[in-house]
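Meet our chain:
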Amino acid sequence: MRAQQRFEEAISEYETVLALNRNWVHAIAARGYCKFVIGAIEEVIPAQERAILLSPRDPKIGSYYCWIGQAHLLQSRVEEAVLWFEKARSANSEHPIPHAYLASTYALKGETESAAAELAQARKLSGDDRYSSMARLMAVGPFGGPKIRELFETTYFIGLRRAGMPEE
């Protein structure tokens, strides 16, 4: 259901799973992310922190770090976001998403050279052209419901524009 972007239904299913096994790391993290997407930003950080605590060498730990970074970024806590995106990049340096978020956060901090380098790396690692323009990135989404989308507009997207991503 999460893959089909049916986040509210997915939350219900993850809660059923967690009723059977309260320490199922993937269910904890994924439920937190689903809540984030529907607008409950404050719930993503505790969920990811719990997943990290339960499975500190988890192969998906880079995603957990990135989701924490997203929550900080959308709440305009750029310094904290950078730390988590750097952890995500270290955990999985071959994935383009942490590089794109670092491009945005570095640009928001005024570190334009670092931002441009991270954006170039995201483009290089991406299997498609999603980081070639804002129009292309928005077309591949998802960026959540209206509340979350608005927060992306006022943080992540502004940072990517400052990093040098063109509109078209």
About this structure: The mean pLDDT is 95. The first helix runs from residue 7 to 20. The radius of gyration is 16 Å.
